[in-house]
Amino acid sequence: MKTEHELLLxxxxxxxxxxxxxxxxxxxxxxxxxxWEIAACFHPARVVGGDFYDAFPLANHRxxxxxxxxxxxGVGAALFMSLFRSLIRAFAQQNYTLSWLDALTDKGSKSIKxxxxxxxxxxxGTTVLKNAVSLTNNYIANxxxxxxxxxxxxxxxxxxxxxxxxxxxxxxxxxxIFGANGIKARLKATGPAVGMMPNREFGIxxxxxxxxxxxxxxxxxxxxxxxxKREFFGEEKLLSLLQKPALSATAALDRIEAxxxxxIGDADQFDDITMLALHRV
Length: 281
What we know:
Elements: H1 4-25, E1 36-43, E2 51-57, E3 63-70, H2 74-92, H3 99-103, E4 117-118, H4 128-143, E5 151-159, E6 164-170, E7 176-179, E8 182-186, E9 205-208, E10 214-218, H5 220-223, H6 235-241, H7 249-264, E11 273-280
Antiparallel strand pairs: 1-11, 2-3, 3-5, 4-9, 5-6, 6-9, 7-8, 7-10, 10-11
């Protein structure tokens, strides 16, 4: 029979293996796109966490960007994080046509100064966004409903040539777009959290990113970060950090990260802290 010390070592070894496996589900390198910068940071509250981010190439020279937050924390959330990430990427990278996105010309879209416009999919065929999110939602809801695990998720498809971003926001914290004159837009939910119930509707919105615009997507571990007095970092403080321009996506995340950890101080980290930023240079 193993001693308590041996069991503890065995448990710690398994956690380290889980951490290495989870790290392997995060992108080893972010896509390098002329005229664009993508940056990210990931700090789990425990050895493993339920947040993830991803950025990967799609058909027709598009780029997919994802940030998600699986409910709960720890090993169980990390297991489902790997499932959500694998399903989203696998369904997105299947050979679905993006030709209908090309039909949504820049002339037919609104800039972020004018607001955003709901993109209508054609009657025939499906989209990368629609398939990836809907199929992932149905798989989780139909096969794992007893465990009651779900994720909030933001999934955007970027056309680097035009700056047009189509996206689904499944109950996630609204990403922020800011520029030289402060905050320009929030990308609010277009559907519910993913995996709660099958056959849910997920709308697709679109928005135009202009030169020098930076999109910052984040998990609620940022705004829910607590100091030793149990006070939240809060959305208001986050927004105040983005009222001033940043030189790069990396600089924007560094600014937020430094402020969040200064707020946490000596307190324990309450939740996973994950951010993803996209900068049109």
